[in-house]
């Protein structure tokens, strides 16, 4: 990386624009950047850093760039830094402008402009600059990638701050680690340590969770084993927990199986005892049953002997009922015939009551003959009934023709009336269409005139406004001219007064024995004195500044006046000389005519639609009129045919209906008369038939009662039993016989008789013995089931725990492996003898490289006396790895760098800084650094050491490298000819470049 040119405007202490030509300074190889304290030497380096990275080193970066602006800069001048450099074979130009709070262009107050950045690259073939980017982020990424260093690395490598490295020499391991970590970006190794620790905690949590779940299963197994299982004392995560739990579970399962075998044996013994008790209980129950059976049979036999008379009476009653059953059919037949005859008499009386009195004495034959005559007359009315229906249809059809005729007459009248005014309607609609078309054409013409008229009116209004603005600004210009002339006159007066009193001002600088700056004499017999109205340089500069500000205001007002006059000329050219009011009236009239034409043209489409509908209605009404005329002609013949047919039917129907109102009424009368006569004849015949059947039934009943042995039919009816009484009597007889047979059978049973002769059975004692045996079986079964459940629960929980152990095995192995790696990387492992963290180990390697590179230059600076070496010894109880010692060749002893003197500390820190720059450069990909800056520390060196240090720095010029020394040591100005001086003044600092090629 080589710097070519740096342009600074309103940055830091520099109120104006300053330029640094690094190409000229680099010709000498070694150049000096000097100036008074606070002049701005470090600000030059800050400007380089800000141009590259958009920020300045350390605490000076604050307020998002707002503090970078110079307090000496004018309010209208924006802060800007432009750097031209070559890096990686590419010539680039970087321009950066921090945020700027500038005065508002209109009104009072200020507004904030955002930061701006530009990146350009020089095209050697085209000899032009081409833009690459204006994005802060893209530019930052591009520069960081090309340099291969972050801002912190750049400030340590290119801008070598000796104070930081002096502190680095005396710092402890932790402070050295922080600095080296920023330079070599070893944060990734710290991230590795962090990731390993996080992974160790995560796997440890998973192992603890798994062990907690395993212990929960162990507690469940202990519960299932009735607390016979002993749990291990290990906590979750401790080694051997899984083996202890699985061993205790195996013991619990074995114990549970032994208890299950014992329970099975006890259950088998209880079941055998229960079977014997049940057998004894069955025998006792059988003996008690037989004894009770014999006693009950003996009691039933005694009771039957007492009730034998009732049994014999029931047998006699059943015998008479059997004889009466032979007469029962004749009785039922006689009752049915009597009931049927009674119903026939009632029906005959009801039918005859509906007939006229002329048929009161007629028999069944006479009634039937009258019914036949009425039916024959009814059959003759069928054709008349059809004729009557046809007559009704003719009347309805005739009425329909009349309605059609009236409707067609209405249609004809309406069509004639509408068609009579058709031509007038059509002409009116066509006139509307023509008017709307003319309005549309007129609206199109007026629309083309609207835009030019609007533009001309707007230009006229702008012309009037700008004319007023021109007068106002012209007045301001005249006022600014007067103020500028007055300020200039005041400045010239003040300047003249100062020149008149310059002798007193020069005399104030005279010293005894020193020559005068004007005459050169060392004697000053009568130096001039300042009077009361003396004007000094500050008063002159204030007057000049006031004049310059007034002149700038005048230029600004003249520029604004020119701009307004140009705009006024353009507006006048477009609007002409026509007054604005006249143009506005013309435009309003044009707008009114356009709106009226647009409204008239909008009627074109409705008028066309209305004409189309009118033409369709005209065609429809013409067709309707023609169709009505055709229908009227066809109705004349149809009406005549209907009238002839109606006259014939009315004559026929008058004869057929007789005295009735209609044929249908006459037919209804005959139908009712025929039905009544037919019903009466049927009822008369039925009454005669039932009387004969009743007489025959009485004769058969008397004969049947005599043959059955009864004196009268009434006696036979009384002996007869109904079905319920017969079944009840038969049931009583059958029950007596069954009971008698059952009692005799029981009393004859040998085993029942033997049981009756034995002592009474003790059933309660046998039942108590059986119940006790059953309870023992239930208890044994419950114990067996509990033991079986215990075995099943322990097997299930053991299987689950074994699965958990298998699942946890890989995780436990991973935890052990990660824990070892995390402890080793964190420096807490016993295998890490020096207790070095991973990041410290990497930084120790880098520090060893830095010490080796620094020793090369330190040997030359110290005339071969000192050598820097890296030490990985532990400091007290802390960790090792980042120790730094110096070996004194004169004493041959190694001692801490904190024991070096002030001058020795300077050139040791300088050698360390240069060595660090070489290592970081190699780490950044070997980017060549052709421009370096070294900041302060040279005042602590004697002349010989200073020469040796300068020789070392001069050797850095090899291969066209330039080194800038930042110092205010006066002796360096004599030794280094190429200089960049920072001059401090009231209006801000300035840069002066001298001695460059």
Overview of the molecule:
With 997 residues, this protein is of the alpha+beta class. Helices cover 68% and strands 10% of the residues. A six-stranded antiparallel beta sheet has the order 2-1-4-5-8-9. Helix 7 (187-224) packs antiparallel against helix 22 (763-826) and helix 11 runs antiparallel to helix 18 (663-708). The two termini are 20 Å apart. The mean pLDDT is 78.
Short structural summary:
The chain contains 26 helices and 17 strands. With 997 residues, the protein is α+β, with helices and mostly antiparallel strands.
Defining key terms:
997 residues; 26 helices; 68% helix
Q: Name the helicity range.
A: 55-70%
Determine the mean pLDDT.
78
Largest sheet: 6 strands, antiparallel
Order of strands across the widest beta sheet?
2-1-4-5-8-9
Low-confidence stretches: none
Radius of gyration over all CA atoms, rounded = 70 Å
Strand content: 5-15%
Helical stretch count?
A: 26
Number of strands: 17
The dominant shape is flat
What is the terminal-to-terminal distance? Answer: 20 Å
Q: Structural class, from secondary structure content?
A: alpha+beta
